[in-house]
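Sync notes, pocket subgroup
Present: LS, DG
LS reminded everyone that the earlier model was apo-only. Rerun requested with zinc ion included. Inputs:
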Amino acid sequence: MTTRLASGTTVSTSLPGRSAPNFSMRRVTRKRQYQLAQEKALTQQLLIRSNGQCEKCHEWPDWRGLSKHEIRHRSQGGDPLDPGNCLLLCGKCHSGAHGIRET
Ligand SMILES: [Zn+2]
Ligand SMILES: [Zn+2]
């Protein structure tokens, strides 16, 4: 008569095939996505306000179109989402606003 040990179970501590947890890093965070959407909406709003013209010289923009200029830059505490802090400027005026002179 042979006695068999009932301990036939093997416990594996290593889990093959499982590497690092699979979560992908988002390049664009949710917050940033929201911000971009807000800025887009604001640009639309400014376009309506400016009637498609530059808000400084009130001319139609050249090939560069209009771009949003922050009167007080966000790095200086300005609110980039406040329409009162933003101007839609033509390329020439926008360059001028940043101290770049065009001939
Ligand atoms: Zn202009
Ligand atoms: Zn600007």
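DG: Strands lie at 66-70, 86-90.
LS: Residues 54, 56-57, 59, 89-90, 92-93 surround zinc ion (ligand 1) (CB under 6 Å).
Action: DG to write up.
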